[in-house]
Amino acid sequence: MSVSETVVQQAVVEPQERSVLRRLLARKLALFALVLIVVIVGAALFAPLVAPFDPNEQFFEGLTLEGAPLPPGAEFWLGTDLLGRDLLSRLIYGAQTSLIIGIVANGIAVAVGALVGILAGFFRGWVETILMRFTDLMMAFPALLLAITLAALFRPSLWIVAMVIAMVNWVQMARVVYTETRSLSEREFIVAERSMGAGTFRILFKHILPHLLSSIVVFGTLGISTTVLLEATLSYLGIGVQPPTPSWGNIIYENQTYFTSAPWLVFIPGIAIIALALGFNLLGDALREVLDPTQKGRH
Amino acid sequence: MSAASTTAKTVLSVRELKTAVATPNGQKIVVDGLSFDLHEGETICIAGESGSGKSMTALSIMGLLPEPMARVAGGSIHLGERELTGLRESEMRSVRGDDIAMIFQEPMTSLNPVLTIGRQLREAVLAHESVSRREADRRALDAMKAVRLSEPERRMTQYPHELSGGMRQRVMIAMALACHPKVLIADEPTTALDVTIQAQILQLMRDLQKETGTAIILITHDMGVVAEMADRVIVMQHGKIVEDNDVLPLFENPRDPYTAELLAAVPKLGAMAGKDPANVHAGDMLSAKVLEVDDLTVRFDLKGGVLNRVVSRVHAVEGVSFELARGETLGLVGESGCGKSTIGKALMNLVPWEGSIRVSGEHVVKAKTAAADRAYRRNLQMVFQDPYASLDPRMTVGDLVGEPLIIHGLAKGQELQDRVAGLFHRVGLTPDQMRRHPHEFSGGQRQRICIARALALSPKVIIADESVSALDVSVQAQVLDLLKELQEEMGLAYLFISHDMAVVEQVSHRVAVMYIGQIVEMGTRRQIFENPQHPYTRKLMKAVPIPDPALRRGVFEVPSGEIPSPIMPLGHDVERVQFLDLGDRHLVAQS
Questions:
Q1: Of A26, B25, B374, B525, whose CB has the highest number of CB atoms within 10 Å?
Q2: Percent of residues, chain B, with pLDDT higher than 90
Q3: pLDDT given for residue B418 in this prediction
């Protein structure tokens, strides 16, 4: 492709893309979601610059005389944890871990699940039997037990934990995509495509996948909170992210015994998890509507 | 009847009814100033095309509008002395079923699939009257007998899926009439049914009205049904009444131009009698054969039992043979389940088939390679029934029309754009519409898009599977005209699959009548429509409602009963029909 052709193509494509972004920004909820995500991702990326303290430093003045954690105040904005560490700093560093888990692990789960689901739903026959029976098997197997087994086999590190979570979490996505692909491939416009002689590749990627995107986006964003929480569970059992590295999940679990006397230690990281999930969820929802041409001119 | 209605009691009186629907662009009035009186024992037909507000009228009267999206914005509805607008939901519930009952187009979706028919009927009785269970059951059984269901006791214990469409509609009517309502509103009650079953249901409604004196509001798009059933007709367009008159004068001498237009667009069975079809394009019939089908058979295995083995077979198509010449239209008629659509699918290689299919003299083998498959498809294209369902809603219509050209590698870049624009022109659309999506078009325009897509590969044969059935009559006439034009211009051959006898008569050069998987009669249009020989052909024609109230039949001469099933246990074979040639290739199955 010559340079001039590329330029022409870009010129053709650009206004469309810009209008998608503009349409997205025109929605208040989407804007709110974007702000949430930018704040969290920014905090994670620039943690050393943003965080007021070292997340692992145990402050002597971080505990009361009786040895109880401090509530939110002037020095430690969000209070301190059981060991006198600054909660805000741990939360900011913890965002790194939780984002990696929530985006990488969940991303892999979404990709694997969608692929398995679309292949099983479209090809049927023995492909369907093998893939879906395997999915059922994985579903029937207790996820936590599987995660524990896998984590025990490998030395726990952040990336291993991410892989383990991905391997446990793809099944639901596979189920959803499988069912939708099955009904889609029986729709009349797919039959019409076949009657014109369209190949498998074209039908799958030009006609079926675009219709699946909305479910994948919605289900995928929901998966972020699930995976963050699963990481927390694994951390609690000692096979997740190893202390003292903070993650939102293990902050909750480390401090949950003091839930009644120091509720902020559980609530604040909990709110952070919800904010992350909400941000991606709202963004996904808005994207789904903006990208769907059948919604054009209807709002 | 109209004379009687002036003395009869008024049961329902609607005045200046106004129904509004909230849309993103503000409020839209869908029913505007509707007024009418319904008398005891009278049948009013509300006729109109889609979007005319006829169904909204029914829902307004029933208080079933999807609030708050739609609401009654003004006017009054009097049931006897009682005002219905502004009633609370709880009060309205006692009116529904008790005083006004409704039946819908699709009986399957209106019945609960997990409850037996008997139980649903009993609940319908108990919901409105405080009687004992035993009494309710007895009433339910009476209702089943009243709608003349065969073996009513057994039907009570069956589930909806065990009944056919016609039987389900009978159940719906039984349910609606169980509490002896004063008014029955029937919204397209026979549209989803086959003609012979439609005739049975219409006859049943007439009989029941005579027995009970229930007043009926029949909502339909089918002027044939109107002519058969109505005492008075209200024609609606864009939410307004354009004409309100007794049935005879309305049909004889429509006052409003829209009514006249609507009546003129309705295909009438027998309208082509005595006329020979327009010239068949090619002079030499024999050499110009574009499609030859010989002994086509399609069977589907039904699995069952513990071991999931084949236990029975659907003999969808059994040994069907026909041929199609250049520029010719073969109409394929029959009722649902007769295998007519399966023939179309087999020709498109969408279902496994046996027998021989030749396109332009070349045998179609079940293509092994994608390339061979494509070469074959270039000559044969299909236009489906539902133009919306058969277009990918996420693609622009320009891309959709151009897609076959890309798949077959025939054009790209600017040439592709030009050819698509040319196709748009050809079917009466403008090329600047290419960038829009299917939902932005009307039903008729969408079907034009489908036709443009089928034309993209310049095929020799187009299979039109109920291609105009989902369209309003006026739009239907336009699409049929387009098809005819294209045929004359390009010498296209059509296999026109339809359940609508009148449309088939209008477009076909030759006609084949199908009955449970086999052709029972085939010949030229005049042979079939002017001299039908097979009893099934005759039965079909008798069942078609004629859009002329002067020719209304006192009783539909339709034998009761259902269409036999094409499902046979394993090992049983369908008996093949033998044809008798009555001369000049008029083939009739010997019985």
A1: B525
A2: 22
A3: 92
Considering the domain architecture, whether residues B578 and B492 belong to the same structural domain is answered as yes
Q: Are residues B466 and B516 in the same domain?
A: yes
Instruction: Using CA atoms of B270, B271, B273, B276 in order, give the dihedral in degrees to the nearest 10.
Output: -130
Smallest CA-to-CA distance from B539 within B509, B560, B523 is with B560
CATH number of the domain that residue B227 is part of: 3.40.50.300
Q: Which helix (H) or strand (E) holds B519?
A: strand B518-524
Q: Do A192 and B386 touch (CB under 8 A)?
A: no
Q: Residue B299: beta bridge partners?
A: B315
Domain borders along chain A are: 26-50+108-295
- For residue B473 the two structure tokens come to 């009559």
In a domain, B481, yes or no: yes
pTM to 2 decimal places: 0.80
Across B148-152, B319-323, B533-537, least confident range: B148-152
B382 contact A CB<8A: yes
Q: In terms of residue numbers, what domain contains B570?
A: 289-379+459-589
Q: Is the pLDDT of residue A262 over 90?
A: no
In chain A, whose CA is at the least distance from the CA of B390? A189
- Report the domain count for chain B: 2
| B386, B390, B407 member nearest A198 (Cβ) | B407
pLDDT one-digit tens code per residue, B511-547 = 999 988 899 999 998 889 888 999 889 888 888 888 8
Q: Residue A18: which pLDDT band, with cuts at 50, 70 and 90?
A: low
The 8-class DSSP code of residue A162 comes to H
Q: B383-428: per-residue pLDDT in tens?
A: 988 888 889 988 899 999 999 999 888 888 899 999 999 999 989 8
Nearest C-alpha neighbor of A139 from the set A119, A116, A155? A116
Gap between the Cα atoms of B377 and B359, Å rounded? 10
**B390 in Cβ contact with B454 (< 8 Å):** no
Q: Where are the alpha helices (DSSP H) in B357-508?
A: 370-377, 397-407, 413-426, 443-455, 473-490, 501-507
Separation in Å, CA of A20 to nearest CA in chain B: 15
Both tokens of residue A32? 């709110």
- Check CB contact of A191 with chain B, cutoff 8 Å: yes
Decide: helix, strand or coil at residue B136: helix
The domain made up of A26-50+108-295 has a fold known as MetI-like fold (1.10.3720)
Q: B238 and B331 share a domain?
A: no
**ipTM of the prediction:** 0.75
Assess if residue B53 is contained within a domain: yes
A128: its two tokens? 């369907």
* H or E segment to which residue B363 belongs: strand B362-363
Cβ of A188 within 8 Å of Cβ of B394? The answer is no
Residues B58-109: pLDDT tens digits? 889 988 888 778 888 888 998 888 888 888 888 888 888 788 988 888 777 7
